[in-house]
Design goal:
- 2 copies of one chain form a homodimer.
- Chain A is α/β, with parallel strands linked by helices.
- Chain A is built from 9 helices and 9 strands.
- Chain A folds into 2 domains: 6-75, Winged helix-like DNA-binding domain superfamily/Winged helix DNA-binding domain (Arc Repressor Mutant, subunit A); 82-194, Rossmann fold (3-Layer(aba) Sandwich), CATH 3.40.50.
- Chain A has helices at 6-25, 32-39, 43-51, 65-76, 91-97, 100-104, 135-141, 156-165, 192-205; strands spanning 29-30, 63-64, 82-87, 107-114, 123-124, 127-131, 146-149, 170-173, 186-189.
- In chain A, α1 packs across α2, α1 runs antiparallel to α4 (65-76) and α2 (32-39) crosses α3 (43-51).
- The mean pLDDT of chain A is 95.
- Chain A binds a DNA duplex (22 and 22 nucleotides) through residues 5, 7-8, 31-33, 42-45, 47-48, 50-51, 55-63.
Chain lengths: 209, 209
DNA sequence: GAGTGTGAAATTGTTCACAGCG
DNA sequence: CGCTGTGAACAATTTCACACTC
């Protein structure tokens, strides 16, 4: 398959969210225009995005809601379960652990780790927090697909190195540092300080536009 | 000022994070190469990004760490305090409320709202959760700069409409829906389901590349 | 007629390469 | 001599326009 832009993949995920809403509302078909309006895109963009993967629509009608959702799930690889380990049992780790929405979508948290002896051994939403020292042993026993780094910035890079060495190929990073990893490893960043700062910039500059 | 790409603004925020690390390490100058290595960029990109706003470096030497950090803070508008209201006292609202890092960077949470009578009136990290019914009155009394939507997807659009009507021009949206807002309002999205899904896609496709 | 699928055009964003300065 | 600043070349992405199908 030809190279597909990251922006296209992210939009597919948004389209899927909207399609699931359509399913709940009982719609059976949806046009690229409708999909665009609530998927933060344009009709042409929707059609282009989908055309990279095949032609799923019917001319004059639109796209079949159920089938398109299924196709996008297949494209994104959501047909199977993903094993997730979470590093850091603080605010972020706790929030993720107690959210059932990820498990529902196939991302199941296998284990939660921390360095803090005060947290290790405590239960967090039904899972016991394990000592980070066990990380490599645990991963050797049961490989994980995705690791979440929910620690402060300082230990994040070293943890990323350990995770990569242990075979992890996808990291969701909440720490406010840019992780340096080999090209075979994918990192997705959630950086709230950065989001606040882009909002601050927008507030200050769009007065001038 | 000429139009600046969102991607440039986001990188400035990353450069700033690294510059603060440099300050702590006692460095006084930094080259575009060093900045690029830990800012997820390239040397040319760093220089280009900065050149949109002025010329801050010294040829043959690099950039003065302290001064450049200060300049970027000014560009992003981080010189002042921003009033933040948080909608939703669940996992996300709690996590934000208890994180001192945002207040440190000038983003102070003024109020937290919820609809759930079981949560309203309870204290959350020193702040009492207010009934969402008071939102408009409160904002009329004390305007806020940024609103955080930390609710489930269903009420998110309606809340966004209320916030916009009440004069909010910047929204940080954690709900898994694309908000429709007037062009004068800026929305930043943090969509964890989407991040997991892009990681899933990467895991399935980079085997083929 | 309504709405998709898709090359081609336009735009936007990134990289190059080198002049110019400290 | 090293490293910035920047126009010009290049690459990627988005938008357009229209042929085609239901």
């Amino acid at each position: 398959m030809a190279h597909v832009a990251l922006s296209t993949v992210r939009r597919l995920s948004l389209y899927l969210q909207f399609l699931e809403e359509c399913t709940r509302d009982g719609l059976t078909t949806v046009s690229s225009r409708a999909l665009a309006e609530r998927g933060g895109s344009t009709p042409a963009q929707v059609r282009k995005d989908l055309s990279f993967f095949g032609s799923f629509g019917k001319r004059g009608i639109g796209y079949p809601v159920r089938e398109l959702a299924e196709r996008i799930r297949a494209i994104l690889g959501l047909g199977r379960r993903y094993r997730v380990v979470v590093i850091g049992a603080g605010r972020i780790g706790s929030a993720l652990a107690s959210y059932p929405g990820f498990a529902d979508r196939g991302f199941a948290i296998d284990a939660i780790y921390d360095v803090d002896p005060a947290k290790v051994g405590r239960a967090l939403d039904g899972r016991v927090v394990r000592d980070i020292a066990h990380l490599e042993d645990d991963l050797r026993r049961t490989a994980a697909d995705v690791a979440v780094i929910g620690t402060p910035a300082e230990p994040a890079q070293e943890l990323a190195d350990r995770l990569v060495a242990a075979g992890i190929r996808a990291i969701l990073n909440f720490a406010s540092v840019t992780l340096v990893v080999p090209p075979a490893v994918t990192v997705a960043n959630v950086n709230m300080a950065l989001e606040f700062e882009t909002l601050a910039f927008a507030l200050n500059w769009d007065g001038d536009r």
